[in-house]
Design brief:
0% strand
Length: 175
């Protein structure tokens, strides 16, 4: 057993080194996936706005003629911002609100408990958006590029400094 311990520690160091090299992948993949879905969803809704207005009216959403284009436009614009990683943290906020409204209206009848809620794609989007909003867009983003180009001058932007939650957890795990 003692001879296996150094091997296990070496394997752990290798896994941590590989994970550190790939730390850019999770935020990029999550941001790009959610951005892509919302961009095209907003695009489709804006090109069939009458149906979306009618659907919002059936759900009992007040002023569907205002809410439908507003929500659809948010999906399109914020989805595009997420895709490129610009104002990422700011862009997650309206998307989270849109998903909360979707859960409270369109999915209300499908939620009888936490198990039902966790099984809905809208909740998954909220979880991903919260994670992206907290950890930031990752290094492959316009936000990160602005920080590299302008340094502290970009600190005034709402999300120009990507947080490194992974780095904090790794440091804590190494202690």
């Amino acid at each position: 057993m003692e001879s296996m311990l150094p091997t296990l520690f070496a394997l752990r160091r290798l896994i941590l080194a590989v994970a550190e090299c790939l730390a850019w992948l999770p935020p990029t993949l999550a941001r790009f996936t959610v951005g892509w879905i919302f961009f095209w969803s907003g695009w489709g809704k804006l090109h069939d706005l009458d149906s979306v207005i009618q659907f919002f009216a059936e759900l009992g959403i007040p002023h569907p003629e205002l809410q439908a284009p507003f929500a659809s436009g948010n999906e399109l614009v914020c989805g595009a911002l997420l895709l490129v990683g610009l104002c990422t943290r700011l862009a997650t906020v309206p998307m989270i609100i849109v998903m909360i409204v979707a859960l409270a209206t369109a999915q209300r009848e499908n939620v009888a408990g936490l198990g039902d809620l966790f099984g809905l794609v809208e909740y998954l989007y909220i979880a991903l958006l919260v994670w992206i909003g907290i950890t930031g867009p990752g290094p492959l983003s316009v936000d990160a590029l602005l920080v590299r180009l302008f340094g502290d001058g970009a600190a005034a932007l709402p999300d120009a400094r990507p947080a490194s939650a992974i780095g904090r957890y790794e440091r804590a795990a190494r202690v």
